[in-house]
Automatic annotation (TrEMBL):
Organism: Flavobacterium shii
Protein name as it appears in the record: DUF2853 family protein
Length: 113
């Protein structure tokens, strides 16, 4: 099993155990691949949910650039809802899991077809 496959299994477990979501493994794999090499860097692999600059990065680089959404307060509300679902007290919020949940939240699975 490759390092990426091991991470995907870890992300799937997080989705199931911490978010109560049964992941679509095909979509999760595509979202994880879309994160690129950041998944192998301990700092970049997680989202700092309390850091304003980090949340702006998620909004600008993922929601607007990758998913093609227009900038609005709905994006901030979506990020907030996903972080709430993942659990604010959860120290390690994996970027791939957050992006997967955001993709579902905004119904943009078609971006990964």
């Amino acid at each position: 099993m490759s390092a990426r496959d091991e991470l995907i299994v870890k992300y799937a477990a997080d989705l199931k155990d911490k978010c109560g979501v049964t992941p679509n493994m095909d979509l999760l794999t595509k979202v994880t691949i879309g994160c690129g090499p950041s998944i192998y860097n301990a700092d970049a692999a997680t989202v700092a949910g309390t850091q304003k600059s980090e949340l702006e990065t998620v909004k600008n680089n993922f929601l607007i650039k990758k998913l093609g959404l227009a900038d609005s307060t709905a994006l901030d509300a979506g990020i907030d809802a996903v972080l709430e679902k993942y659990g604010r007290s959860n120290k390690n919020k994996y970027r791939a899991v957050v992006y997967y949940l955001l993709t579902l939240h905004f119904k943009k699975e078609s971006v990964y077809k």
